[in-house]
Design brief:
- The chain has 145 residues and is an all-alpha fold.
- It has helices at 2-19, 25-32, 41-60, 82-98, 102-107, 113-144.
- It has one domain.
- The longest helix has 32 residues, at 113-144.
Length: 145
């Protein structure tokens, strides 16, 4: 049942991205083009997402636990680190250049060869990041010994 609900939620999210045309890179690039033909529609999509999240968060936060988990997973680390800033910068540059972020890219994965290649590049990048993190943890453990 948990996976069915996750699948349905993903389908709703993907459908919203397609209906709002956020899977079209030219739409996102038009939002980022303040000096040219600026398209504010992404602002409305983002605003409605924040509003929806805010309402749902207030309702869900009053429940003792999630439906299919034993507790809520809330990140404890709230530090702004160089790694966080560099990652955010890479994400922003990639988003601006490609016109896509991971959610819309996955929703439109088969729309064109370019988007499929973009998604493969995202997965390769995530894999490399995980490998680098494992090596760093291994170095940290070795240095403590």
């Amino acid at each position: 049942m948990k996976f069915l609900l996750l699948f349905i939620a993903g389908g709703i999210f993907s459908s919203a991205l397609v209906l709002s045309e956020m899977t079209k890179p030219e739409k996102v690039r038009a939002f980022l083009d303040f000096t040219g033909n600026w398209d504010p529609s992404l602002l409305f999509v983002l605003g409605s997402a924040v509003l929806t999240y805010g309402v749902i968060f207030r309702v869900v936060s009053k429940t003792p636990k999630p439906i299919f988990e034993s507790r809520f997973e809330v990140p404890q680390n709230r530090k702004i680190t160089p790694k966080l800033l560099i990652g955010a910068a890479i994400f922003g540059v990639g988003w601006g250049l490609s016109g896509l972020c991971p959610g819309p890219a996955f929703a439109a994965i088969f729309a064109s060869k370019g988007i499929f290649t973009f998604v493969i590049a995202i997965m390769v990048g995530m894999g490399l990041s995980n490998i680098i993190e494992k090596f760093k943890r291994a170095e940290d453990i070795a240095s403590e010994l």
